Amino acid sequence: MQDLAAFAASIAPLIDAVHIDVHAAGRQAGLEYVRRSGLRPGFLIDQRYVLPLRPLTRAGLAAVYRYGSAAERDAEVAGHLAQGTLREDDDGRLHATPVTLAFVEGLYELHEGATARLWRGRDELVGELGELVGRLLEGADRAEGGALEVMAPPYEPEGVSAGLALFNRLAAVRYHRADAHAAAWQAEGLTAEEITGLREGPVWETVERETNRRAAQPYALLEEEERERLRNGLRALTTS
């Protein structure tokens, strides 16, 4: 029987690699797009698949950006309010504005083009991987107050391409492992500052082992053969 914790450890860098590949493929076009927009995008790029669906909260942002400071987050929110890319309601929830939605639409077009170029001729594989990752997202445990609770499900407009859907689903599912890692280092009594400075040793190994154990949960939703197809498919995309 497959060791799910070991599987979670082995697939995490593949998920990261595919995600990074798309960003790299769209980097130059993205820089030009941001320049033309005249905006300071900040976390709008991360939140592109959240804000069209639901508002953000400061508590949610603290979970997603748990390794930054409250002052840094507050300064960024203030900047978005000032430039009109967020609107705050009476309950403190942060909503997308028309400016934001137009910016996100352009980002989606840019990323759709990047995935189409990067994975040309791989439509069947990309569609299959997107379906598997979608099932992981639907069944992943969401820690109350955690990052995945903020970041999933991702916004998918009608007619979204298989490549763009896979890219954003992979981006979102990474937050399940992020929450698992946070729970693991918190269980060891560490702070965010302490874990970022931790190097290899007994405590680091304990945190990694517990991270993998917790991160394994959604993979149990797939059959072993499906897990292998997912891992091999992601590997194929990183080497195509």
Kindly summarize this structure in a few lines:
This protein is mainly α and 240 residues long. 65% of the residues lie in helices and 2% in strands. The protein has one domain (4-238).
Q: Helical segment tally?
A: 11
Number of strands: 2
Note the gap between the termini: 30 Å
Please tell me what the overall shape is.
globular
**Succession of helices and strands:** HHHHEEHHHHHHH
Low-confidence stretches: none
Q: Which secondary-structure class do the elements indicate?
A: mainly alpha
The figure for the number of domains is 1
Give the SSE layout.
Layout: H1 4-25, H2 27-37, H3 58-64, H4 70-83, E1 87-88, E2 94-95, H5 98-118, H6 123-139, H7 147-151, H8 162-187, H9 192-196, H10 202-215, H11 224-238
Antiparallel strand pairs: 1-2
How would you portray this structure in words?
The protein has 240 residues and is mainly alpha-helical. Helices cover 65% and strands 2% of the residues. It contains 11 helices and 2 strands, in the order H-H-H-H-E-E-H-H-H-H-H-H-H. The protein has helices spanning 4-25, 27-37, 58-64, 70-83, 98-118, 123-139, 147-151, 162-187, 192-196, 202-215, 224-238; strands spanning 87-88, 94-95. A hairpin with a 5-residue loop joins strand 1 (87-88) and strand 2 (94-95). The longest helix has 26 residues, at 162-187. The two termini are 30 Å apart. The mean pLDDT is 96.
Keywords:
mainly alpha, globular, single chain
